[in-house]
Amino acid sequence: MRAIIVDDEPKAIALLKSYLDYFKTIEVIATFRNGLKAFEFLNKESIDLVFLDINMPHLSGVSLSKMIDPKTKIIFTTAYSEYAVESYEVEAVDYLLKPISLERFTKAISKVISTTSNNEDRVSNSIMIKSGAKIFRVEAQEILYLIKDGNYMIYHTADQKIMARESVAEALSALPQYFIQTHKSHVVNIQNIDFISKNEISINRKLIPIGSSFKEAVLNRIG
Questions:
Q1: Which of 31, 51, 111, 119 ranks highest by number of CB atoms within 10 Å?
Q2: Does residue 56 sit in helix, strand or coil?
Q3: Strand, helix or coil for residue 191
Q4: What residues does 146 pair with on adjacent strands?
Q5: The model's pTM
Q6: Is the distance from CB of 140 to CB of 127 less than 8 angstroms?
Q7: Residue 213 and residue 53: Cα distance in Å, rounded?
Q8: Given CA atoms 136, 137, 138, 140 in this order, what sign does their dihedral have?
Q9: Which residues of the chain have pLDDT under 70?
Q10: Domains detected in the chain
């Protein structure tokens, strides 16, 4: 996947480049500190992903985004939360508020992957999970269920467990629509359900509780 970074702050560009070192399928082709220069480049080159600062001189990130090929994925970045509303005019993959953590950045990359069609470089059902100093790429359909343990979410597949420091909401934001929360601390892949009873779901011989406040939504979705 070919990407460029457009930001008028050198430190911001350096940070994003350092984060992208974790994602070998994304290649940074060029960086720009000026929206006009980036626009000239985009008219000549085919780019899959643009990391775009909103508040820039001469040509704002929002203005530039409206000139970019609609097929190009955009992740907005900014130090000012008040620009979020303006960015919603554009169909962007994500909106990152500076200072950007690696955990939050990983979620944004997961969204890029999950919204991209399959080809030799991009896997639509893959998600990125940061666990400690490592980032795992996992096929979403292989995830059976997730269990919250304190400040961590534990992703369970048939042959491994991956622990990530995140909330249930953060986990769900990066997962496909076939994942559903069944309990305050449990999320399941409905494609892997063996059976469902009044208060439990069985997945790979593991019984997952259905909380009373989630029961109606679960039954409407699965029943």
A1: 51
A2: coil
A3: helix
A4: 155, 187
A5: 0.60
A6: yes
A7: 40
A8: positive
A9: 81-89, 115-124, 223
A10: 2-114 (3.40.50.2300), 127-222 (2.40.50.1020)
